[in-house]
Amino acid sequence: MKSTTQKNTAFIKSEAKRLGFLSCGISKAGFLEEEAPRLEAWLNQNRHGQMSYMENHFDKRLDPTKLVEGSKSVVSLLLNYYPSEIQNPESYKISKYAYGQDYHFVIKEKLRELLESIRTEIGDVDGRAFVDSAPVLDKAWAAKSGLGWIGKNSNLLSKQVGSFFFIAELIIDLDLEHDHAVTDHCGSCTACLDACPTEAIIAPYVVDGSKCISYFTIELKENIPIEMKGKFDDWVFGCDVCQDVCPWNRFSKSHNEPLFNPNPELLSMAKKDWEEITRETFQAVFKNSAVKRTKLEGLERNIRFVKE
After folding, report:
1. Which residues make up each annotated binding site?
2. Rounded to whole angstroms, how far apart are CA atoms 145 and 133?
């Protein structure tokens, strides 16, 4: 006979699959002991640059029971965003995760549905949904839940599907069966360290966020440092280099989420189209896209920096 805990766990995992998530893993909510000193050192060394929000809620970031009162389980979920087609290779590039609609909205909706199903099936379950916009260490929880290991490029990697996926979680007040972490399969490979255009991966498993192309093109609001000239390899919003070169990403399969499909115009845009982009084109091509975060002015700044 299956226990109630087993039945509830199986139900949540099958619902996650029905909603289109790649995989679902579960951990006991509690203090992240191993991550605490690492996060503290990373912040003390100013590896987060101007992302000052990383310093906020330090205790909540390490302990979800402080974030969601009464929480017992962290349900981690992965959602694939690997596209079936990519941009014109001769053009300026944006991260593949930004091709379609802003993932925050797409995933939040799926998490809302998942929580509704849990309440309908199991009863009065309290909790909150998170998609990388709150003080939750997504990758640490996903690794703890057995969904992959944190690679040398500091991304979560999976032997089955690589790393082109979003990570989200439900933190709920329900006891569930817990999964176990998997082993690291980076081995002696240094492909990501060798390929990083700005040498942001300063040591295996350590990324200096303030040197990353994604940081410069999305988070940094002022002028991009002149010493980065010529190092952006045509990236104008985010960067996928450390994922593109990772051997595990040869197992990436294209997603089947229609909302992540790009505007066809994006795929065919040439450099000239980017350089002459108007507000109308920006609004049309990036309607509901994560690229809106930089605003048109930010995107123009990035294009100028890469072009000059």
Report:
1. 61, 132, 153, 156, 167, 186, 189, 192, 196, 212, 214, 221, 239-240, 242, 246
2. 20
